[in-house]
Amino acid sequence: MRPARINIIQWIFLLVFVVILGRLVYLQVLHKEQYKALSHNQQQEQHSPLKERGRIYFQSKDALFLAATEKPFYVLAINARAVKDPDRVYAHLSNFFKIDKDVFYKKALKDDPFEIILRRVNAETKALVEKDAPEGIVFITENLRYYPGESLAAHVLGFVGSGEEGMKGRYGVEQYYDSLLSMNGSALNMSRNNGGIASFFKNPITYKSGGGDLILTIDIAVQTTAEYILEQTLQKWESERGGIIVLNPTTGRIIAMAAYPTYNPNEYYDTENVGVFVNPLTQHIFEMGSVFKPITIAAGIDKGVITPDTTYFDAGKIEIDDYIIKNFDAKGRGYIDIRQVLLNSLNTGAVFVAQALGKETFREYVRAFGLGEKTGIDLMGEVAGNIQNLNSPRSIEYATASFGQGISVSPIGITMALSAVANGGNLLKPYVVEKIQTPEDKTHHSSMEIKRRVISEEAARTVTRMMVDIVDEKLYDGKAAIPGYSVAAKTGTAQVPLKESRGYSEDFIHSFVGFAPAFDPHVFIYMYIERPVGVRYASQSLTEPFRELMQFVLSYYEIPPDRL
């Protein structure tokens, strides 16, 4: 009999999902014809800066849902020549909008038949304004980009904004695939590898007119649940920033990508801090801490310099280049084997393995895992990791790097590196667009891309077994396990470097990585929070959120248990 896997917390996630799903169904299905008719309205007063821009879709297990489309809005303007009573016009408009009085009167006193007061007015508000409106108020229609899910997956989507070149995609897939989404009367042969897009598709893509539609890999149910769990976790630990990535580690297919703080792309122009547009999961790098240790151990096993049974003497600390490196608890454990290094997250053990590898070999493995390069994900602005410290001859740089300090990596970078452990040793390219639908109804599918083999399958499975032991034996004394499934995981508690000087502050970044079923993984999750309050270790802050999200995804996709 299969274990019951729908618990109270899952019902909460499902309720949140249903609310957002209901909104999307309402907009996409019930009002589909209305929006279609409005978007093709060719009245003389209509302005369509997004004419024929392709749509973007989320998906679920059996349906597609609009993530971005065109929607008619209204520009509110005044015909200054027809305004007989500026005071009355201003008073009337002030009932509905917050309008700068000085700016309004400057425009009202001009001899101009068209002065824009406000953009992006919806149909309901327009109807209210027009009721009993004084002379001189004008509305014109314009089609604008509209995101039915509002802030849902905002960092994946990006937005369409105006600039010197007109309306263009900004950030996310809106910018990365801007040429595909906005094609209008010109041809583009993707075999020329425009912006790196062609590498995701087997055949060249040529458009004769109009824009193509994007079908994302993002699953709306998993995305909604990930965002909900992230928000709850950040609130609990008073953390202002964090993120979650969910993907299939055997294909590189991104299922969810949640980041906070976030924004509503429908109202991007009202965002005070433009830094929120940046996707921290692909565009921020930081020191990862102990989630890096499986990479060090995997390299040592793959190279043959250690085995799980290799022993070393753990004194609790080690001196290198006049620096003292300690375990998290500063305790020594005497002669122990490599299994205990991951199980107890021992810094001295990671240093031991790095020393056994030697500087050059250790550096080669770090590079092979892709930590000094971009992953190639199809999102704008990805940054590469910074592993410059490994160009130094100083031993301390390699020692600290062995447990994830002194080198900086993006969340997507560490996710793909550890996915190589999960999938048997291959470094993959991640992707967020699954299909492109052309105006000619031709479909181009993305495909899995293996960048290179990093470690042997045997080494990967050996490290995976060690990571399963962490869940079964260590985390919450084994209470972090999910009944019916083998789960591999590792936590990381990284110190935040000081900005003005060398050394580290008292702040931490907590990270958690894990995949399941461990030896046939369908789901890989990475999550992190910055500067949590009232909690010291990631095992304390993120174990339960990880477990809840993993349990939901396994249940949602009906992935069979691998343990009886």
Automatic annotation (TrEMBL):
Keywords: Membrane. One of its GO terms (cellular component) is plasma membrane. Residues 52-182 form the Penicillin-binding protein dimerisation domain. The keyword Membrane applies. GO terms for biological process: cell wall organization. Gene3D superfamilies: 3.30.450.330, DD-peptidase/beta-lactamase superfamily (3.40.710.10), Penicillin-binding protein 2a (Domain 2) (3.90.1310.10). Pfam families: PBP_dimer, Transpeptidase. Its main location: membrane. Residues 242-551 form the Penicillin-binding protein transpeptidase domain. It is found in: Membrane. GO terms for molecular function: penicillin binding. This is Penicillin-binding protein transpeptidase domain-containing protein. It comes from Candidatus Ryanbacteria bacterium RIFCSPHIGHO2_01_45_13. The lineage of its organism: Bacteria, Candidatus Ryaniibacteriota.
